[in-house]
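Allow me, if you will, to draw on your knowledge of protein folds for a short while. A protein sequence and the structure tokens that stand for its backbone fold form the material at issue. I would ask you to consider whether the tokens describe a fold that such a sequence might reasonably adopt. Thank you for your consideration; the sequence and its tokens are set out here:
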Amino acid sequence: MIIDSPLKIRNITLSNRIVLPPMARELSEEGKVSDELIDYYQKRADGTGLIIVEHSYVSPEGIASKRQLSMADDSVIDGFKKLTDAIHAQGSFAIAQISHAGFESMSEDKLNLNEMTPEDMDEVRNAFIEAAVRTQKAGFDGVEIHSAHGYFLNQFYSPYTNKRTDEYGGDLENRIRLHNEIIREVRDRVGEDYIIAIRLGAYDYLDDGSKLEDISIAVNSFIENGVDLIDISGGLCRYRSPVSKEPGYFKELSKIAKESCDVPVILTGGVKKAKDAERLLEEEYCDLIGIGRAFLMDAEWSKKALYKLRKIE
């Protein structure tokens, strides 16, 4: 049974292949971790290999929603440390996701990537880097850079939204230049024993959007610059596929990533049953399975799923 097998990522070994993916719970208090949020994650950590905590904004102008978590200054570190301690106490590992909403931000100072100056670019780049360093100080096992669902870095990745004519626009190498600059500097700051993941909005499902052939090129470029884990999701289509509702509806995208790289790949999307999770792993669409909505409804999904599959065996 693959789902119940361990998996090594850099310096940690997950107990199984089940991932609680980042889903905004809107339970923060002025950007800081609340007791309610700690309770939510602690309950779901028991029996779960990896938890990717919901996205935290890297700077105030990149906030996506009113009660989103913040990783924008050092005042949040102590609260996150309580959260990571709670997750680790259940035998799970924790990765923090950091994001900037770009022109999807609810801030009055929202950024339009096509109008950004070199100074603007420096500011956002540094915000991501400093936020990543804070995740390490808060006791996380790694950091995930959010480039999916139409947010800031995904806006650079997609030619549908990226209309820049300088070195950050045009061909794919240019459109992922900012990603790689962030990844390289984060790796330099956090050292070799800290996981760097990227959530990639791999495909837009739009005629003028990102292309399927971009996936393998982008993924390998990210890995060359320091990424250890690839987390596949939707691009400008956000977190739902416009062409499929079957379990693992982004599986064709994750398959491309998995077949073209040598680091673990996470697939999330519409997986509710243990047998479907195991099948997707067996058919080599991915190395890890993200269970979203089902985990919202049932905090013990991991334990129940593993019990059912062991009983079948």
